[in-house]
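Subject: for your reference before the review

Hello V.,

The reviewers asked for a structural picture of the protein, and I figured it would be easier to keep everything in one thread rather than splitting it across files. Below is the amino acid sequence we used in the manuscript, unchanged from the supplementary table.
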Amino acid sequence: MSKIKAIISDADGTLVNTLYLIRHGQYETAKTYLTQHGVPIKHIPSYEEYEKHLHTVLGGSARETLERTIKLIYEEIPEHIEGIDYDVLHDMLNPIQDKIAPEYVKAYPGLENLLKTLGKKKIDLAIFTSGTPHHVVRNFGIAIPELELTSLFTEDNRTDLEKMHMLEQKMEQYFNIPKMIFITCDDITANKPDPESILVALDRLSKSKEDALVLGDHKVDIQAGMNAGIPTRVGVSHGFDDVDALKKAGATQVIHSLEEIPTLL
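And here is what came back from the structure prediction:
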């Protein structure tokens, strides 16, 4: 492996364990809305059924994921979801996830050591996510309490973008990372596996494709790296997809923990 000058990493399921937050948050949101919409109780999916369908459609924005999951669940009985306003449904998601986030959001083992290693080796970090600045500030603030930003996402005296820039600066300073940026859904027009988010990251970091390592837990992360022409694509199997799925998606290497990353650098 050539010398890596930048890591471009997915967020959820890769660096931060938000799997249960995403699953439970989306389920509780859908269940609440569908009940209010008048769907009979016997046709409200169980958590297990919802999770099964959710897993097959992940990869886009939260709103897209909600809509695709519900349409898939009710594919055989579409009359139950006639007239659904998916924008209203999506507006219900953040308050529900914000309430349960402190319970469900955790850093994956090895995250802190990985960030410290980037600082020691002077390697830049770009985190590309289908989430919003609000999600980034909430999840990373909770997952890395030593930054002392755990409640930043609840403050209303700054915009979400201002909060995200505060988080970027704090991570740079605390871990001594040369340059740290987030690429969110607000920065792009096409979601993974489209390469746009990775290409934006490379441009903002002023790095070449050969300088970068793409890291992700979902096949769309790896596919985005491949579509962007990144030669080094590392899958991590502690998130959404397993080893076989990551390899089939184009991972040049699959690891099982973030604790393995420093040895690759």
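For the response letter, the relevant points are probably these. The radius of gyration is 19 Å. The chain has twelve helices and eight strands.

Happy to draft the paragraph if you're swamped.

O.
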